[in-house]
Design a protein that fits this description.
Blueprint: E1 3-6, H1 15-22, H2 25-40, E2 49-51, E3 59-64, E4 69-77, E5 81-90, H3 97-113
Parallel strand pairs: 1-5
Antiparallel strand pairs: 2-3, 3-4, 4-5
Length: 114
């Protein structure tokens, strides 16, 4: 149904791969499980995948770990491709504006280079 791809800078850096490499095996498995939900199901519960309001069409992948909450931000390229471009450990109730700005800047870079 959908395909998840990771944003890369023009010099090949991939922030999502770096983030995933920093996780423990169990944490990475949980993130991979949520990615699989997003790819395989047309309707994904908001607790896992949600469009952020007041953004440039930024979507949030939501992963609740045992003692940490992970957020991976990205956007759609067309109807079926989800480009993930920023990840962080969420420490506040609201998604920090700075993280949204990073995702929006990377989206603009991706679209410009596309």
């Amino acid at each position: 149904m959908r395909e998840i791809v990771f944003y890369r800078t023009d010099n090949g850096k991939c922030y999502i791969e770096d983030f995933l490499d920093s996780l423990s095996g169990k944490e990475a498995q949980k993130v991979a499980w949520v990615f699989k939900l997003i790819e395989e199901f047309e309707i994904v519960p908001e607790r896992y995948f949600k469009k952020l309001v007041n953004t440039e069409d930024i979507w949030e992948v939501r992963v609740a770990g045992r003692d940490k909450t992970y957020r991976i931000l990205g956007f759609f390229d067309g109807n079926k491709i989800v480009v993930l471009n920023h990840a962080f450990i969420k420490k506040t109730r609201k998604t920090p504006k700075r993280n949204i700005e990073i995702a929006e800047n990377r989206k603009r870079d991706y679209m410009r280079r596309k």
